[in-house]
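pls read this stuff:
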Amino acid sequence: MYRINKSANSIQRLEQKTFSSLGFRERDHLQEWIAKQPDVLGEDLLIIQKEFSGFDATHERLDLLALDKQGALVIIENKLDDSGRDVTWQALKYASYCSGLSKSNIVKIFQKYLDIAEPGVNAEDRICEFLENQDFTEVTLNKGVTQRIMLIAANFRKEVTSTVLWLMNFKLRLQCFRATPYAMGEELFLNVEQIIPTQDTEEYMIGMAEKAQDDIEDQVEQKHRHVVRREFWGRLIDSMNASPSNLYQSISPGVYSWIGAGSGVGGISFNFVATKQYGRAELYIDRGNKTENELVFEALAARKNEIQTAFGGELEWERLDEKRACRIKAETVGNVYDREQWDEMINFMVDAMCRLEASLKGPVREVWEQVKARSPINPESMNSI
C-alpha cells in the first residue's frame, strides 16, 4: 500500500505491520473499531451486542453480533494476526446458537447493549430506523436459516479458507476479511479487504454455490426416487406374477420410470411406466428404425377393432410422429410417489397388461411376419427376433 504525495507528485510505500507489534489487542482495539465503524466490512450493519454470551449451558462468547439490512443476524468473529485453526468451527457453533433467537430475544439483546452504549435509546425504534420501516410489527428478524458469518483476521490459514470455500457450496453465507495495519512514521492506517468471496466474483460464487446445492438436492431426490420406484416395481411384479400371465416371471425391479418384458419380437416390448402423473401398460415399438416401427404400428392399427375387442376396451394408439418409436397403451391417472395410490395403480396396470398381452402378442408375431415379407429395410435387421 502506498500514500500519495500530491505536492511531490509521487507515492510513498507504507510499512506493513502486525497488530501485536503495534500493541493492539483483539477485544480492546480491532473489535471496538468494527463496532464503531461497521461499514468497514463493506455494507451497512447494525451492531446489536459485543461479547454476546447468551447461549444456554455454554460459557462461549461471540465477538460481535449484528443485523444486516434484510434483518438477518450477522456473526462477526475477529482474530488479530492469525485466524487460528478453529475459527470456522467456532463461528459455525455461534451461528447455530443464534439461529434460535426470536424477534423478542433480539430486541432484549440489543436493548441491553444500548442501555450501556447509548442510554435512553429504544431498541425497537433503532431497528426500525435501520431497516427503514415505520412499524416494528412488520419487521422480520432472523428468518429461517439466514444467519451470516464474517471472519476477520490479518492472516487466514489454508485450513480455514478451504473450509469456508467448501461450506459456501451449501449456501452458507460466509465472508472472510483480511485486516492489515500499516504505518508511516507516527501515522497508522488500516486496510480491510474482503478476500472470500472476492467482491468482484461474489455474485458468481453465490450462483455457483446455489447450483452446487441444487445438484446435491437433485442427487438426494434422485436417490429417494430410485428407492420408491424399486419398491413400487417389486410390488407390481409380485402382483403380475400372481396373475395368469408369466410375462414378468424373469423381470427384476428397477430404479427407472419404466420396466419392460419382451414380446417375442426384437425391439417390441410390453412395458410398464409409472410417473408422478400416470400409470401405464403399453406395447412399445422401437426396433431402431422409424420407418420399420411405423410399418409395424400401421399393420397393427389395421387390426384395431379386432385387437380392442380382444382387449375389452379402448386403447390409445400413438404413432408418435415426432419420435422414432410408436406405442399402444392403456393409462390411468396416478402418482407413483404417493404410496396411498399404489394399490389402485397396480390393480389397473396389471389388469391392463394381462389384457394387452392376450390381445396383442399373437397379432404382433403375425404382423411382424407380414412386415418382413414386404419391407425394404435391411434383411439383417428384419430377421432380428
About this structure: Confidence is low (pLDDT under 50) at residues 377-385. The CA atoms of residues 226 and 313 lie 33 Å apart. Residues 202-241 form the longest helix (40 residues). The two ends are 79 Å apart (CA to CA).
